[in-house]
Structure prediction request, 252 residues.
Amino acid sequence: PRKQLIVVTPTYGRPLQAYFLNRLGHVLRLVPPPLLWIVVETNPASMETAEILRKTGVMYRHLVCARNSTNVKDRGVHQRNTALEHIERHRLDGVVYFADDDNIYSLELFQSLREISRFGTWPVAMLAHSKNKAILEGPVCNGSQVIGWHTNEKSKRLRRFHVDMAGFAFNSTILWDPKRWRRPTSVPIRQLDIVKEGFQETTFIEQVVEDESQMEGIPPGCSRIMNWHLHLEARHFVYPRGWLLQKNLDVV
Ligand code: UDP
Prediction:
């Protein structure tokens, strides 16, 4: 039997939301089942999101997180935690992957996720409109052994693991079975909301693995780009007068 993939997506209402959710939904639709898409909004859940999810034909759960972050840098943190609590409480067995709604994903990525036994990581290409090149972040590997990290920005040298939020996935049983996986801590694994910018991923991963020896670089050699992290700030777009939509359009 194929391993279940549990794809966690925090999302919120903004002009590009319907476009992002439809795009991601269509990719997930092409992934062979079993796949569960956990989409988390902050209160209140929107009808538009519910409608898009219903139409994609992907197995999904639409969750609502009561807490919203007061810090703009902690985008999606409480929503991902809501999903983690849900997975843990219901013992949902599978490979957990945090897939933000705005990134670009290849089908190959989802195939590779099924190869993960404990914790898998791979390089992600970051595309930002302020820079005219793609920046790589993630592991350098010898076969599937992680032997180093791609990193570019000086301040980021202090991070323990140089992994993008979209560049790792893990076996859900790690959440409720710390002994079996020799987890560094037995307290519940959660994203933290008071973390310096750029450290969100590493503080999370430090709760899941002790070091690189507990990681698997995928695919072997880590030499392929399977997804792209897009940094498009919708609010910086210049729209013709009268063209800016503050809210979602109804999707019919
Ligand atoms: N997000 C959210 N609420 C917010 C801001 C962001 O649910 O107030 C979600 C967003 O839809 C995306 C993820 O959190 O799925 C990451 O957000 P963003 O791409 O803005 O962060 P970046 O990757 O640029 O740091």
Q: What stands out?
A: Residues 17-29 form the longest helix (13 residues). The CA atoms of residues 242 and 250 lie 18 Å apart. The first strand starts at residue 5 and ends at 10.
